[in-house]
Amino acid sequence: MKERYSTNLHEEHYFADPARPMGDGIMIRGRRGKIFAQGYVPGGEGPFPTVILFHGIPGNEQNLDLMQHLRRCGFSVITFHYSGCWGSEGEYRIANNLEDSETVFEFVKSCGADWMGFDPDNIYVVGHSLGGFAAAHMMARHSEIKGGVLITPCDIGRFAKMSKEGAEGVHAILEDAQNWLNETSAEIMEEELRAHAEDYPLATLAGRLAGRPLLIIGGTLDTATPPKDHCEPLESALNAEGAKHFKSLRFPIDHSASDYRLALCDAVAEFLTE
Length: 274
Fold this sequence. Notes:
The protein is of the alpha/beta class and about 270 residues long. It has a single domain (about 1-274), classed as 3-Layer(aba) Sandwich (Rossmann fold). It contains eleven helices and nine strands. A nine-stranded mixed β-sheet has the order 1-2-3-5-4-6-7-8-9, with helices on both faces.
């Protein structure tokens, strides 16, 4: 089920000094073939609390600075590429993103502390853009996930509703993303989203998310996924569920927090370490 390879050094040397931080390329066997991933581990004796980091669509912004920052704060971190993007095999579909997320989650739990320092009993999820959608669905499906952070999330499940309201942001995202992805198109993804209009919106997950720590970061300058359409529906649903461990922040950032990276990294790390 799982395969891996070392990207930089020979294995016998790469893992020889557990006191040093390390990183490793990882190949995970998914249903459609290889899923390529990267793992970072702090120095010292594990296991370490573990973050699964989800990138967006198509994944140009991978938030590797956040990954490095979380490692410095004592977390093991793994990020990966969904099927059909950046070398991972198979066709790109929204449903496949969710399935790949399950595959990576099971991989992290099966590895444990004997390799990469993953702690199967302390797993967190962090997602940016469409990765926020995937992270929220993962957290809703697995009560053992301790908490999560959604960074300028793309509530792509609301595509059908937003289209009727004249909000074309998601359509523009898919139109651009199709050029980077394998065996898909904006039309294919939009049809898929219409078929899942009842179960993909993040607000439908509120009852399962309300009891655990969740941070939602919206960008007041974000024109790709404005908080009104992509943060507030879930936030309102969480408040209606009486969520006590839910926190919402608004930063003066664009979709990728281009000029706010240090503050963003600090906010995510502080929330998770609390």
